[in-house]
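#data-curation
PF: Archiving a pair of folding outputs for the training set. Convention for this channel: one message per protein, sequence first, structure tokens after, nothing in between. First:
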Amino acid sequence: QVQLVESGGGLVQPGGSLRLSCAASKSIFRLNAVAWYRQAPGKQRELVAAFTPRGSGNYADSVKGRFFISRDNAKNTVYLQLNSLKPEDTAVYYCFSYEYSYWGQGTQVTVSS
């Protein structure tokens, strides 16, 4: 059974940090084919971070230098480290498996003072 479960969202002040987790079911073998998207209210869902074929990160211009994608194969988990958060980063963050075209349920990130 394919499953992606996000966690780690919450309310944070501008300039703060969060680490999001995406726990994948063991049927998802290709963690490097799992990416992070986000959707802000009234806006389209957008790609935030994904792995390159060499396993490094590829990022949206709006988050370069602040967000970092990583994975732990032993835990079958993909992470998204969010640093120097801005109010415009407020959104629901989703992980997505390209291997199965499967979305997680999302986790809310709110950046506000």
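PF: Second:
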Amino acid sequence: QVQVVESGGGLVQTGGSLRLSCTASGLTFDAYAMGWFRQAPGKEREGISCISWNGGGTDYAASVKGRFAISRDNNKNTLDPQMNTLKPDDTATYYCAALAGYRYCSSSWSKSGNNYWGQGTQVTVSS
């Protein structure tokens, strides 16, 4: 049984930083590109970052580029998203996902839906 579990969310002030963590089990972790998504209330889910199976390639949405960073440890089956210079607009539930059918962050990765999803972790940025 595949399980993806996020942790590390919470409340942070504008300009602050937060490090999330995502652990996957029940799958061959290094067979998948990993995606990082978020969904704010009343908004569609947004793909904000992707990292290739070996960590050699990354992609970021314009909304987070330069502020967020993603890395992975294939020995520990973990994804490690780092969020810096947070803004109130970053308030959302954050999800990580093993991207089914993807080893690299091709142009369509953010639209992939048939993934292994975590349950999400809430991040709230206060102004």
